[in-house]
Records
---
Amino acid sequence: MRSLRVAVVGGGPAGIYAADILTRQYEQAHVDVIERLPAPYGLVRYGVAPDHPRIKEIIKALRRVLSNDRIRFLGNVDYGTDLKLSDLQRYYDAVIFATGATADRALNIPGIELNGSFGAADFVSWYAGHPDVAREWPLEAESVAVLGAGNVALDVARMLAKPADEQLTTEIAENVYQGLKANRATDVHVFARRGPAHIKFSPMELRELSHSPSVDVLVTEEGFEIDDAGQSEISSHKATKLVVDTLLKYLEAEPTGAPHRIHIHMMQNPVEILGEDGNVVAIRTERTEYNGDGTVRGTGEYVDTPVQAVYRAVGYLSSNLADLPFDDNAGVVPNEAGRVLDLDGVQVPGVYVTGWIKRGPVGLIGHTKSDANQTITCLLEDLDSLAPAEVTDPDAILGQLAEAGVEVVTWSDWERLDAHEVSLGEAAGRERIKVVPREDMMRAARG
């Protein structure tokens, strides 16, 4: 059995699962997980709201994987800048890209460029304490629109409506807490193009909206429409039925008079952001109606809702990677079952993808694991045809990075940073307080 050295670019769930499956299925495999941030876990750390500790339970499983002796973590290393594809091909027999999707998908409607118009992914990065975004966020708007019908839209709405002090049991970073404490939002309007049976909320996320005693969830009766296709969804999917039941409870509930409100508007398609003097003043939506197959069409009836900020939560988008082909329309690296293809459809030897950069930003953690399994299966099928690495010394890549002045964060370095965050939390009676500035992260990692 030949030895196998593989680089996985991306330290989120997709990359970690790929490393785990490969080392389980092939005894002679050694994997380096290369991550541009000083911390692992990707969107589980930087794409999940701080008040979602249950979702963050996945970190415990990912941590066990990265503790494997045959898996090495190399953090604070930026692919495309610190390392090129040609470098990786010198040191590894194969390369798997698992860089995910972190940018906001565009929404091409008039007014999207106005002051007060934001991408939800940028806001998520801010409140999740990402080291590479600004420390402050403008939160002067009293009425806010959130455009989208998925869990990210719910997270954004909840974070805007929920008082900051209720976040003090979480790992929320200090700058984020101070920013949210100054937040002036009292009304958050969530807009969905379709009705309750076609909304992509998960039941748990939807129920969590009402967990704060300071927030009323208000569902408007107009737009609570279910067509035949929606009824079929309810009958065949338990999760859909739970979502519809929860929306119905919100619809029927009497407002408590809470100081903050989340309004859920269905069957309304955003068509324009209205502005004055360059600033957002309203969102214009067009009422929709069903075509009979679950899709909708505009009715020509428009509604203007006064707001001072708009967040588009219409999906994540992957970024193109240096030296790799990229499908700009689909937002993925062209591939067949994880094998990277060039723009002529020919397989690029020894280069693979997994996760959202492979299939687009859809699906949950479980899909990511099965996705990684498919990619690893292809890699192992290709084993005999993989060209061996030119350099066999596993530490040679560390030497190149050191010569280039790159300060690599190893697994033991991360464990020091991890322990530092936990100690900050313990001092405040909390489980953890996240460190945000990259220089502070590096300082803690060095001990």
---
Amino acid sequence: MANTILQNAGFVLGLIGTAAIIAATAMNNWSTTDRQGDVVTTVYTYKGLWQDCEVASSGFTECRPMYGLLGYSGQFQAVRALMVVGIVMGVIATGISLFSLKCFKIGSTEDTTKAKMTLTAGIMFLIAGLCAVVAASVYANQIVASFVSATYNSYNPYNSGMGDMAIGMGGMSTATTYTFGTALFVAWVGGGVLVIGGVLKCVAFKGMYAEYTPTYKAVAYKVPAQSADGGSEKKTREQKYV
């Protein structure tokens, strides 16, 4: 019973985590303009993994797709790749986890096969969660670096001409300070939920495999002493009569 609860809980958490990282990847507010201290803001900018959007004071929003691979840093491309890999692994693990549930019957699938499928889904959930957490952390680190650089340039008059240099992380400019967007927190939460779901699936596999593995006891067969003596006496009598 406990193994079934762990298996179902891992499946539900994996499904929620996969949906969360899909939503985070599609969201455009991974980084937003830091408006702290600004009295009047005419243009509000927020950036995602695939689009760069601006909101005017009139409320009009314009988004520009972020095409190309060479115009951005390797870390930004790694964030994209990690999120895509996490989504693929999460979707596949969700399908495997669904078919491994006890309440889901597929022909004459053995229980040991379902236990192995549960372990496979758990490992894939773990990998997907780690990909999302690492990707969000790398992106957040670049936001912090951009914020520190912009703050340093604003207080250093000798670096005033370097404000328009971009660090390559999605086109972030050191002249503008950015802060964490909603998508970052969604990716962190989704990755954490996936990790928890993967751990529950692995724990459920341990109990399921121990429950379904058959145990065989070896019995050594020995010839009784009486039958052995009786056979020798019979043979002696036959030789005597001959």
